[in-house]
Amino acid sequence: MDYSPALMTDMYEYTMLDATLRDGTANRKCVFEVYTRHLPEGRRYGVVAGIGRILDALEHFHLDDDDLRFLADRKVVSSQTLKWLENYHFSGSIKGYREGEMFFPNSPILQVEGTFGECTLLETLVLSMLNYDSAVASAASRMVSAAKDRPCMDMGGRRTNEWAAVAAARAAVIGGFKGTANLLAAQMYGLKAIGTAAHCFTLVHDCERDAFASQIAALGKNTTLLVDTYNIEEAVKTAVEVAGPELGGIRIDSGDLASLAQRVRNQLDALGATNTKITVTNDLDEYALAALQTAPVDSYGVGTMLVTGSGAPTCAMVYKLTERENADGVMQPVAKKSKDKASIPGRKLAYRSYEYNLADCEHVISGSEDQLAAYEPQDGWKDLLVTYVDHGEIDAQYQGHDAIMAAHEYRARALAELPITAQSLMKGEPVIPTETTVL
């Protein structure tokens, strides 16, 4: 589909732009910040994902003639604003947490700096990508921890919107997954693609033996055969008869997975197929994966619970103005004082401190540009912010396949730096506190 990221937004962003262009405030320099006030209930940490997709979208964030005509026909904005939009190009700067980084309440995950007009248009797109992708990556990270390093694969495409499926596959790999069943995601991002056959493949053949023989003829003995269409014990026996002890793997998609995996492992070993791998699927989540830790399972396919954030499909991130140029041309911190929604004024620095090589606190420092430039963190504090866009120039190292793989590795290191209680599936508070200092 050919579409404009500039219309993946809420109408009020364009009406605000229109009004501020009329009154002259659209050109005021501003700093917007993305953060979450709280983690999903009981979660110990979150994982940042989606920034690479934001950068990809930013490259194409402009309106063509059809888009401008749509805004004009709907009378969304004035002719003056349409003229301004003809040449729209984000010329500001963006910095934030790395993809794969841990985040906590009030972490300044992303900061967008530019004029009010150019920054306000990005709000919905930024939030939709960060909220969903980070929710999936956070769930994936919990699942990978529960799986105890046995590979997890994304099989959730059929359980969500077709475009969300592509985003979820990317976010899952950042969260620690090893591959995806979604071919478009594999093509777009260079991800490992996985998949062999479903139950319908067995059912369309006259018997299970014919189905297995057909699959092996097409894909080779290293393929994975689905063995729970009829009787698992008979299917495993037939699979080894057809493929021999070199059979690559079998998949179980129903029943008591732990008990079945144990029986199947013993049966495979007795048949001489000692190297045949066992994959299990069927509505897995982090709790089911934890329950399978002692079962002889080699890999997992996860679907519904992955693409829905395992019960937390959003991170409740918000995009708030924290600093703006006043009528005198001076940058001034601003904040909401709304009940239960108050924000922290000013642009931010973010660091993480450590004791005995384990993170013990997130430090958020708020102040003016000059104050932050002069700020000196304590020895050993880790700077959590990187620059993604510098005056309109996107840093390409944070886009594409290599960036995803770097985020995949970074997440594992960042999680290992947190206290081990971060990996607990029991409900609890964020594993480290966030301390905010206003200079």
Beta-strand residue fraction = 15-25%
**Uncertain parts:** none
Mean pLDDT: 97
Please outline the major beta sheet: 7 strands, antiparallel
Secondary-structure class: alpha/beta
Instruction: Return Rg in Å.
Output: 25 Å
CATH class wording of the largest domain:
Alpha Beta
Shape: globular
Rounded to the nearest angstrom, the distance between the terminal CA atoms is: 48 Å
* Count of strand segments: 19
Name the CATH architecture of the largest domain.
Answer: Alpha-Beta Barrel
Instruction: Name the CATH superfamily classification of the largest domain.
Output: nicotinate phosphoribosyltransferase
Percent range of helical residues: 25-40%
Question: How many domains, as an integer?
Answer: 2
Strand order of the largest sheet: 13-12-1-5-3-17-18
The number of distinct helices, counting runs of at least 4 residues, comes to 16
CATH-assigned fold name of the largest domain: nicotinate phosphoribosyltransferase
